[in-house]
Structure of AAA+ ATPase domain-containing protein:
Amino acid sequence: MLPLIPVAVGVLATIGIGSAVASFVYGELTAEQKKLQEEMHNDLARLKRAQQNKLQKLLEQFQIDEATFMASRDERIAATRKQYFADRQAQSDKHITRYIALAREQISVTENIRKEIEDGIMRLRTLTKIQKTMLRKEAMEHLERELNEAKNKAYAYVQYLKQYEKQLKYRRHQIEAEQLLFSLKLPEDYPYVGKLLFFKKSMLDEPLFQQQSMHQITLKYDATDKELLQSLDDEAMIPVIVTNFNLTTYSYDLSIGKGFLKHIAINQSKIGIEATVVQHTEKKLILLDYNGVALKLHRKNLENPRKVPPIGAKLRVYPTGWDFALYHPVFVSEKYQDSLKSFQFETLPVVFSSQGAEEFITYLEENGCTNEADEWKIGPLDASSTLIKLQLGEKLVFAVRFMDGVQSYFYFECILPLEESFQPEDIFVVMDAEFEMVEEQDFELLSEKTYEHMLDLSVMLFKEFKIQQQLNASMEGLSFFTKWTEVTEKLIQYLYKGKEVICDLSETARVYKLPNAMLYAHEYELLNAEDVRQRLVQLELTGIVEFIIEVEKEQYVLADFDEVVHHLRVYSESPMLSIPIFQLKVYVKNFCYPEIQQRNALNAFRSGQLVNGQLQSYILNSKNIEPQTVSLGELMFQNKQLAENRAQKEAVEQALAEENIYLVQGPPGTGKTTVIREIMAQYLQRHPSARILIVSQANVAIDNVLKGFGAQYEDQMIRCGNIDKIDNQLTPISFDTKYKAYVEKIAQKEEHGAQALFLTRWKSLIGCGQDRANPIMGELLVKNHQIIGATCLGLMQRQIGLDRVEFDLVIIDEAGKALPAELLIPLNKAKKVVLIGDHKQLPPVVNPSLYDTEKIELENHSYCVNDLFVTSLFKRLYENCPDTNKQMLHTQYRMPAVIGSMISQFFYEGKLLNGRGTAERPTKYFDHHLNLLDLSDEVQYRESTKNATVTNEYEARLVAKLVKRIRAKRPVEEKIAVICPYRGQMRCIREALRKEGIHWTEDHIAVNTIDAYQGDEAELVIYCMTRSRRKTLYFSDEARLNVAFSRVKNDLLIIGSLRYLQSYGESHILYKIAQYIAAHGAILKEEDVLERKPVLVQAYTK
């Protein structure tokens, strides 16, 4: 039972609905029903025991077993058997008669309940009209939806009982005792108008399909908008809503469009949907279409009411008003903030006994729970309790009871252990409110407004709890993707703020109402008009530009400048406006296409719009993965050496044999590129016309695969992405090169007569003489190639049109570094997918603004930061995936054995082996492969944190000198990588190299952060610790250290303070690495490195 049901029952009492009806509304049995249920269970148990006892006596009488008794042709046994079944049927008939009578009583009760609900709805509508507050009105509207659902459930329950009676009469000779028991509430799988159900697309495609419910009741269904299924896979799980019972076919009509709307948008209103404008009415209403469902948008609820969207335009909208079964058009708003109105509560009062108050205050003082900025989480204590759990931040969890009556309030029960804190999969609501302690003797002094506020809060909490419960039940694992969708939506709203223009305004404004929009213009004089004009010129704005002002967090109003930039006009719905007039930030509204593509991919995935529908279930929870394989026969490997590596060989064979999904973990240097090429070559050999997409986070990873893939496929390869970031060797197969070549070819054609008009139109369509590629032509170009390479970001480029292409095989490299939505963009388009990554290396890079509560307020911020953002989707999938569908590549060939063993020991539980040639690998500059330059005694070696970044000037100068010496002794073909923990130090080292006369890009020297260098490698790697004083959690991130030390092919030098590494303690990874270097490498001094006479200084001691 959900908590707050007693509260909801109390709310319904205010509109004249009794407790019995209220229990039906919220799916709870009354005391009488529970008693009847127990009586029926006991009665049928007695009947079954009596039948079994009678049979046992007969078996003992004849001294035979049951099978012999039932099959024997002996006259005496046959006569006894006949009498046994006659007596049994007589007993059964009496019970059937009784249970039909009981069912008819329930029909009568339920019909009375339905009548009472209908009367309650009428009274509620009268109350709703006189509500003044938005919250109270929304609470009343929600109650009306609850009552309408209950009315439909009541009708369905009557139909269920009638079907039950019909089945008893029809099958009276086949009924077992346990089959007599009917449900005292509507069975979960029984349909009613407005109910949200999920079916596979293959079922919905049938003209009529049927399923069986309890008592072998057959239910028939028919989807009325099957055209929406055309682009979906047969295995996709599709949300539908029951819209009607068809008396002609005796089947339930289902709406796919309404199912998508309710599942994707209404049940999760903060996410929104994309709808198409179809009509403008005289009443300033805009009619929209979403999958055949009518939506209504008031012009005042446009983001820019002055700019009316044309018919055919696509708008992102959020539901604001709807009826339960979606009989009527749904009202929507284009304003994101309109979806956030449900939980704007100012205070959260809790009543305490004197003893409870003392316990509570003592706990607060002892545990330092004083951070008022922390968010509240409210949810059920557990599945069976009616208590509510409240959590403030990470230090306080306590239970309250909701006291319902004339005056409703939360009453403190007890402090809970921190182990009871909410987990991500739990049901809870996050809200901002000021906590208010009220002593028991004073609670009657609370204002009537406070009690109303608590009543509203209880209704809205119950609504949210119920929705979350339904979502959790509908699809396991969906909450992870729902949360990512909400986070992405929040990020999009924040990124609307583009470049800023600082304005100083006059103290007063001319205010006037716009004639054709329900808006007021506030016109301010610009006191710094010349500065504003220069800034606008500097921004080089082109096309249609919109400006916005953030009036409150994540709430914007539109603004613009007059033609001569003397005035700023700000638009609002009210003649009253409060904005700062000094240093006001006016933002250029930004259209963040990559994030919008990610949101679209998340929504497509959640609604089952995948090319291979089975992948949805597997990605939601990889425990669901079941191997589906085809026989390959013996493979003739293109790369003969690969056959000698068992893990690589098995990864290729199993990935090829699996029809849906396969995962490969590829630690550093284990030959992921080799495996990818072999899978591609073998797949094309078996499927010559297949289309393959190879995608990765890193350009270099894509380029490495395509460069070595084979000249025979060159004409069939196309490399999509920014031409400046593609390897020069791949320029001939780049999208830009091939698109330009095609355009130039068409531009040179000349036609006369009938063909001339067609050619002119064709040249216009493909963009002859234009810089930007036409997305339709981009799509056609991609479809005419079999091997497509792109980064996750490149996939999101609009002009390429990749989002409209399907692929037979998608291979995603560096999958551990991709955000869930970045993975879903190619995955949604895949018939088969192979994911290759390493969850022991760096997780995805999340937009820094999402960590900053001053910029973006995320619900359950701590969960987002500590779990959602740091656990990659690849990790979730790999760790739960059955062994049949995954493989770890366990032999590394990149690093010298001494470094490979260190990486294996500290990051891969010793499972990573060293391949052939790694033990004999020569050094390039140092005498040892593994080196630590100890600067513990150098007083100048210390970090600076000026200008909000960490730098170390001494380290930067030392690195520049060392790199200069190494480059003088080693050929330029041998790459040197300088890896830094901080961007500030990266810039500092680049500047030091410049002063030494070294052009780091031309001299084959990479200077970068750890995050930027994953996926690359170098003959010599210099890792800069930068810090020597202050300890930091940064160096506890084992994934970063793994990446930093595993880039090396020959020599690794770590620059730092041995004393600093020791200061972390024996259990820390830095201490262990220092100990390992002392035992297996060299600890050096500065003069040894610069004079190039490295020797082992001394053995390491504690």
Remarks:
- The first helix runs from residue 5 to 13.
- The chain has 32 helices and 39 strands.
